[in-house]
Amino acid sequence: MRGSSGSAPCVLLAIAVGSLTLSAHAEDAEERERLEILVTAAPSLPETARASMMNETAAIWRNHGVAIDWLPAAAVRPVSFNRLRVLVVERRQSASSPGQPFTVGELVRPSNGDAMAIMSIDSARRLMASVRGRAGYDLAAVDHRRLGLVLGRGLAHEIGHYLLETHTHARHGLMRPQFDALEF
To answer: pTM to 2 decimals?
Structure first.
């Protein structure tokens, strides 16, 4: 997921997203689709940011009928059908073009089929720093909650790729390819 002020052509996924969406008002979590996420985070990710990332991601997907089960990285449970590994790293070398410097997350599907979302703390911080001058107000130099929100929104987008089993994007909403940094 990239932060940018430009827009790019993309594919509308309304039918696919609609097929994933269960009743957003389901009271019983058993009625929701479930996704297990194993998180491994760099020691540099503050606990407040980690909690904010997890809360934001879960809230976004709860609104679309998907319940997130957060598992420790070393979970010794049988592999389930819907399990995604998330790696939150300090820096991620990506294939971003110079005009697209804020690749916060990327879904990687190795040949063995075990998908992994890789989230970059450094890219999220740089995206936050780019907003400070344009926001009309001064943001705190280190704001762990905002860092978690940026990572959580990026992770929610990558989960969309995982659940939809595609790398294509929509024109609107969570699955569009680019977001203005202020939007993040």
So the answer is: 0.73
